[in-house]
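Q&A FORM
Asked by: J.P.
Topic: structure of Glutathione S-transferase family protein

PROVIDED:
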Amino acid sequence: MAKTTLTISSKNYSSWSLRGWLLAKFSGLEFEEVVTAPDDASARAEILLLSSSILVPCLRHDGATVWDTLAIAEYLNEIMPNAGLVPADRVQRAHCRSICGEIHSGFTTLRASLPVNLKGHFPGFKIWSRAQADIDRVCTIWGECLAESGGPFLFGERTMADAMYAPVVTRFMTYDVKLEPALAAYAGTIMAMPEMQAWIEAAKAEPADIEELEVEY
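REPLIED BY: S.T.
REPLY: Here is the structure written out as tokens.
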């Protein structure tokens, strides 16, 4: 069988690459990384939110090529059904898929005004009112999930939802977004995952910076 690969772009800047990579790690599927350089035109378009067709991450496995992050999540759930990428309960499973769809297609102001930058830290960052509305919605989603599940992850055990919201956690850390204790604890849980720590270490080792995503306040 041909080797399984996951094509990603910058670990420092690419939220979609992080999602796909975490999903693959959560599933337990063994894969090799194929890294597209940040100066590649398609990679920059994805990172800078200039492309309506996001082609990374891209999973290639056993004859299948899957490049949409939600499609990757569902594909991994099919081939690794015991990995727990979705909750076992039907109602919780529907809830999980709904909030994953929401982060997949929404929160555009949050994405644009608080870009992922794992090397950066901007205490006192001024947040636009429209971005604050997105932040408030994320906090509502997290709060409802944690109140229902009891944590430490959104649905108790980690699922595709935690992978999908992990880049938001990094944004909150980078831009010093204040969270109430229960949400801060959840953010800490995500940041402390061994997979997340490995990704962050690799991100900090990346030599290239993208000027458009470097801000000074």
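FOLLOW-UP: The chain has two domains: 5-83, 90-199.
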